[in-house]
């Protein structure tokens, strides 16, 4: 029998065992091909005409996936070899050299790999049109006709990448075989693990690392969160691994010391089995917790961004369309345009613009420009500002300015008043200044908007400090309009652009639709990639666990045989198996999810709190959208848990082979 | 008192279509409470099958096994597992200890599985381990102790549920002479002091000489039933004679 035919007959015999391995390989190939396809697709390059560099994004993330796939395949290959130890040792016993065994396994890898490559790419081609459509659907409001196309370059890129990965995999497998001693191979099933009692020091250190990282992540100052980001990630990863490398064993050891808890029916068996294998599982469980944390965070982050795209556009723009200047003809043109396209105006506001040039005192250096005298600031009376606010679609609160004080609407400002109380001065009138982190939307381009109490405003206007002209240039009016269907009508947006762009009396305008499409493209892209990567991660992580679990299952067959002889019934056996398997799956899941919840808190502080405007807590909104992703992820994970458990039961009941 | 009653036990392997193989044919005998009985026979004579049927690890094709007045074949699977755990103690040739557990955990396993309270378990363990002198190996794992120690631990596990009967399948099979002797002394001690009935399958004549009486099995049938008159050397010689007649042993 030639080596190659032996390899092929091996594959036939191991078909069932290869199934999971094969499936995850196919999915990896499918993902790689899809990313390459999306990066190269002409339909997409024609459709996405914004400045976003989506091609590089896809290629970059494609490479990230490839690197993870490589580590995953190498690691599962090792587990698989361990699972087949008995078979391999039989070859060795009959005098086959390690090199030959290695070559045979390498050949098996190549055959399986080639099949996975062909099937993965075929599935990729089959779904390529769907993928393009999904991406465009997420990224654009309207999708044009998508045609079916095969990207030969994408096929070439994918095949080349995987060929390299298979070769690296084969070499690492060869190393595993070469390290085997024949005697170890036969002891395989019974190799005693070193006693593990864990370490209280590791448990405490891991707890401290994780708690400190969490504390830093939930800091309320976004600059602190940004500054410590890498430290937090590093500490969390280190803490997670240390926990699985020593902390978990210590916890199990504490359980074992407390006989009242430990000697509780089947718990005695499942805790011993678990603690016996805890060391073997440490690296896998740690890796899985980290993968789960990163993929759920990626999913939750992308989904939250995507969900808040509409709100964010409204916050940034306040009105579906607003402009400065113009006259009634323009208003009429706009009204006609709306009517022609089956829309109608919902809100309309028109206010005069005023500016003011105060002298500032005691302002922090970071906004020292307020103390200069050359700049004019947009200014409103409290009642006018509230009128605009009411009509607008943003969530700015009504302001209440007391007599003798002024509000400076200035987004993203950190209070730092080492110079004393800031004051605005007009000759011998001084008005206390307070900062309010309001968006600076209706300021017509000035750095900040100053809002006065109606009485002060009237007084300043009378004294000539609030002016309707800036250096002799008469100021225009501010007009804001909201209309029906604003987010879904490309025609209206195009028409508005045409009306406002060509008119010389307009001093600037904004159309919500344009901002909305821009953020949809960016966030949709991030969300799409987030989902994809998470899908790859979840598949890789559960496959890792699956392989590890079944490899160890074959080593635990004798334990269950012993138990049956002592006298356990089917219920007890099932209970032992369940309690033996679920901690391996769900401790990393719970840990990963908790990491993610804290990561989302950090993301909220840095980003979402400035994007999602609610009356209450933006973090609650973030958690609400995130939990959708957490639930989906956990469900998929649970299915894999059931598959693994089923397979493990088959193995330890000796129902296969 | 009659503890165990076997009536017309037969065991055949294979279905009707295939060639049937008969392992046991119409075996009937009783075991009195407090007995130390040996079962001997050549390899393949069916002695281990018989022991497995008594221990309800295996099921007879026909006939009945009555332990302490209860017909085992009437029990459900769940009741059987409990019966095995509570009424019968096993000692196997390969020790049957779980590698993932310490000796202590292995010994208390049957009690824990039966849902006994931790306090009761600890008390029973301490008393028994003291008595059988295995206290110093309790915290060790099976792979850290010798074969003899493993087998003594396994005897201790068999005894901890205070079973009516201990079934030992070639308990000295994997042991050297010295540890074999140590184990046999221990079994004798258990039999005398705990009044536990012991059934031991063996092909080692020296081991068999510790028994009170011996059942010889040949080709699935009872060939002879030999009783000791109290002198071990004399009993040893009579066993040797039966075994020679059986043709199953070398002198």
Main traits of this protein?
heterodimer; A: 657 residues; eight-stranded mixed beta sheet; four-stranded antiparallel beta sheet; 67% helix; B: 251 residues; Rossmann fold; 10 strands; 25% strand; globular
The SSE string of chain B, one letter per element, is EEEHEEHEHHHEHEHEEH
In what range is the share of β-strand residues of chain B?
25-35%
Count of helical stretches of chain A? 21
Please count the beta strands of chain A (DSSP E, at least 2 residues each).
14
**Structural class, from helix and strand content of chain B?**
alpha/beta
Strand order of the largest sheet of chain A: 4-7-8-6-9-5-3-10
Major sheet size, sense and barrel closure of chain A = 8 strands, mixed
Number of helical segments of chain B? Answer: 8
Largest sheet of chain B: 6 strands, mixed
Assign a percent range to the helix content of chain A: 55-70%
CATH topology of chain B: Rossmann fold
Mean of pLDDT of chain A: 81
Q: In CATH, what is the homologous superfamily of chain B?
A: P-loop containing nucleotide triphosphate hydrolases
N-end to C-end Cα span of chain A: 22 Å
Shape of chain B: globular
Q: Termini of chain B, distance in Å?
A: 37 Å
The gyration radius over C-alpha positions of chain B equals: 18 Å
């Amino acid at each position: 029998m030639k080596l190659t035919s032996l390899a092929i007959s091996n594959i036939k015999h191991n078909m069932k065992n290869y199934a999971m391995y094969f499936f995850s390989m196919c999915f990896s190939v499918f993902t790689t091909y899809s990313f390459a396809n999306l990066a190269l697709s002409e339909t997409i390059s024609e459709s996405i005409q914004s400045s976003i560099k989506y091609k590089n994004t896809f290629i970059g993330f494609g490479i990230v996936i490839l690197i993870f796939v490589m580590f995953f395949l190498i690691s599962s290959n090792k587990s698989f070899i361990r699972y087949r130890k008995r078979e391999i040792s039989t070859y060795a016993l009959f005098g086959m050299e390690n090199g030959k065994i290695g070559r045979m396994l390498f050949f098996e890898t190549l055959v399986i790999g080639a099949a996975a490559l062909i099937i993965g790419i075929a599935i990729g081609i089959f779904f390529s049109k769907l993928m393009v459509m999904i991406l465009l659907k997420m990224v654009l409001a309207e999708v044009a006709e998508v045609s079916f196309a095969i990207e030969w370059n994408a096929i070439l890129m994918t095949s080349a990448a995987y060929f390299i990965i298979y070769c690296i995999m084969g070499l690492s497998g060869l190393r595993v075989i070469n390290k085997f001693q024949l005697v170890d191979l036969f002891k395989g099933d019974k190799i005693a693990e070193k006693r593990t009692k864990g370490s209280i020091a590791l448990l405490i250190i891991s707890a401290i690392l994780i708690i400190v990282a969490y504390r830093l992540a939930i800091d309320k100052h976004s600059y602190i969160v940004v500054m410590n980001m890498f430290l937090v990630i590093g500490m969390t990863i280190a803490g997670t691994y240390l926990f699985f490398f020593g902390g978990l064993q210590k916890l199990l050891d504490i359980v074992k010391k407390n006989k009242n808890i430990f000697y509780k029916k089947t718990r005695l068996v499942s805790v011993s089995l678990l603690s016996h294998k805890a060391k073997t599982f440490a690296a896998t469980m740690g890796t899985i917790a980290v993968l789960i944390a990163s993929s759920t965070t990626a999913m939750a982050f992308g989904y939250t961004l995507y969900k808040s795209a509409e709100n964010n556009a409204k916050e940034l723009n306040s009105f579906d369309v607003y402009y400065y200047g113009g006259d009634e003809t323009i208003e009429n043109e706009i009204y006609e345009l709306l009517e022609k396209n089956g829309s109608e105006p919902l809100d309309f506001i028109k206010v005069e613009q005023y500016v003011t040039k105060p002298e500032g005192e005691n302002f922090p250096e970071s906004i020292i420009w307020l103390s200069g005298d050359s700049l004019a600031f947009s200014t409103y009376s409290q009642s006018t500002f509230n009128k605009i606010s009411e009509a607008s679609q943003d969530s700015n609160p009504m302001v209440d300015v007391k007599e003798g004080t002024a509000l400076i609407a200035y987004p993203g400002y950190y209070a730092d008043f080492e110079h004393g109380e800031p004051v605005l001065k007009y000759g011998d009138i001084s008005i206390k200044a307070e900062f309010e982190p309001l968006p600076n939307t209706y300021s017509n381009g000035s750095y900040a908007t100053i809002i006065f109490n109606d009485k002060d405003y009237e007084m300043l206007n009378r004294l000539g400090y609030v002016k309707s002209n800036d250096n002799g240039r008469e100021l225009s009016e501010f007009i804001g309009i909201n209309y029906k269907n604003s987010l879904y009508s490309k025609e209206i947006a195009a028409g508005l652009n045409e009306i406002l762009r060509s008119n010389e009396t307009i001093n600037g305008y904004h159309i919500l639709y344009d901002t909305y499409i821009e953020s949809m493209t960016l966030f949709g892209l991030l969300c799409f990639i987030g989902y994809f990567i998470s899908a790859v991660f979840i598949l890789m992580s559960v496959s890792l666990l699956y392989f590890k679990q079944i490899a160890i299952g074959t080593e635990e067959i004798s334990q269950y045989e012993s138990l049956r002889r002592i006298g356990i019934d089917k219920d007890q056996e099932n209970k032992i198996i369940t309690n033996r398997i679920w901690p391996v799956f769900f401790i990393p899941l719970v840990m990963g999810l908790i990491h993610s919840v804290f990561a989302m808190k950090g993301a909220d502080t840095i980003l979402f709190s400035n994007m999602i405007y609610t009356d209450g807590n933006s973090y609650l909104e973030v958690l609400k959208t995130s939990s959708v992703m957490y639930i989906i992820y956990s469900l998929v994970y649970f299915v894999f848990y059931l598959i693994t458990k089923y397979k493990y039961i088959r193995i330890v009941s000796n129902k296969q082979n | 008192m009659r503890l165990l009653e076997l009536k017309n036990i037969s065991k055949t392997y294979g279905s009707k279509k295939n060639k049937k193989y008969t392992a046991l044919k119409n075996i009937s005998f009783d075991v009195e409470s407090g007995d130390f009985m040996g079962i001997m026979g050549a390899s393949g004579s069916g002695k281990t099958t018989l022991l497995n049927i008594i221990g309800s690890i295996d099921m007879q094709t026909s006939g009945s096994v009555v332990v302490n007045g209860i017909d085992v074949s009437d029990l459900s699977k769940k009741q059987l597992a409990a019966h095995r755990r509570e009424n019968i103690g096993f000692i196997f040739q390969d020790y049957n200890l779980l590698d993932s557990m310490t000796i202590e955990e292995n010994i208390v396993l049957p009690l824990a599985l039966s849902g006994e309270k931790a306090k009761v378990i600890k008390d029973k363990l301490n008393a028994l381990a003291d008595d059988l002198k295995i206290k110093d190996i309790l915290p060790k794992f099976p792979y850290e102790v010798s074969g003899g120690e493993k087998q003594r631990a396994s005897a201790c596990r068999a005894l901890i549920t205070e079973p009516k009967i201990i079934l030992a399948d070639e308990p000295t099979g994997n042991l050297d002479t010295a540890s074999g002797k140590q184990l046999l002394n221990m079994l004798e001690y258990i039999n005398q002091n705990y009044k536990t009935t012991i059934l031991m399958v063996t092909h080692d004549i020296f081991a068999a000489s510790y028994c009170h009486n011996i059942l010889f099995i040949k080709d699935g049938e009872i060939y002879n039933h030999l009783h000791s008159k109290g002198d071990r050397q004399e009993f040893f010689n009579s066993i040797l004679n039966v075994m020679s007649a059986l043709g199953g042993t070398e002198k």
